[in-house]
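Example noted here:
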Amino acid sequence: MKKKILVVFGTRPEAIKFAPLINGLREQNDFEVIICITSQHKEMLQQVLYFFEIKVDYDLDLMMPNQDLATLTSAVLSNLSQVFKECRPDLVLVQGDTTTAFAASLAAFYEKIPVAHLEAGLRSHQMYSPFPEEINRKLIASMSSLHFAPTIQAAQHLQQEGITDKVVITGNTVVDALLMGLKILDQSGVTAQMHFPFLDMSKRIILVTGHRRESFGSGFEHICEALRILALRYPDAQILYPVHLNPNVQEPVHRLLGGIGNVHLIQPVSYEKMLLLLQCCYLVLTDSGGVQEEAPSLGKPVVVMRDVTERTEGISAGTALLAGTSTERIVHYVTELMDNSTNYQQMSRSINPYGDGNSSKKIVQIIKDYFEHASS
């Protein structure tokens, strides 16, 4: 009899990182793969589902305007309990550190269903940074039976917390998804110029993503000031910033950067378009965890605009620089990369510490072995 694997996610990053693994599991005759989404990020999630052709079995459709964490957590918990009773999975797969992942793990724990945690072991060691992700991922680890750690350091974090059983270093499936997505785009013939005709591809493009809540207020003011200085310092460069729809991001970004000729403030872009931008950009400024993992596979240096990052492997490997939200440090690091070709090439050629595109294959085999050992 096939083992039922219930994959639960609710945000775009989760869907991206799950896509290659879902494909890998569905290629096996051993499993029945059931997809449940909470639609924590509804519109952005749907774009990824369409791009990777992921068929959904359960859509809890829990997204509500101005939803707080307590409301979302309780909604995921109560709704998933019903899903579990209906489909009776043998294993629940969660990814990362979202509220969906935490609540799904808790719901599975209540039903005594084992949990497999994709991207386990990331830690900043600061309770409120990132918030609420740092506590979410620690709680998920305490309820999981399988821990897929992307790096050696992530596995060491789990060991330091007393979690040593069934911890496996797999790499990060985000690299698998990147390569899979680029193949889809290559076959379609779609280019960045088609979607962004206002960009001059002969000029250097600085791609910016920034939306983290711990930077709301003065943090974003400092980031925007750095971008203003860089735009004026490098008038031939183009700064492209897909601006998150949160008013805490929109207001300072448009107030401080609106009207600068070589700064393009655009609506948030789909995963497909983000891949195209990563391909054609010169470097990336970001506070996104996923982008820190993706950009090195394309040889793009990353300046991290967060005071703390749980992805320190990129810093150690030389693929990323940690600037925080300091105007001075952001300007300094970008200037070094714009003016010093040796520094740029050194970062560009650094090996991505987050994997080689084979993480999903490893995880599929680990899950197969898990069930075989459980039945023996």
The first helix runs from residue 12 to 26. The domain at 193-348 is CATH 3.40.50.2000 (Rossmann fold).
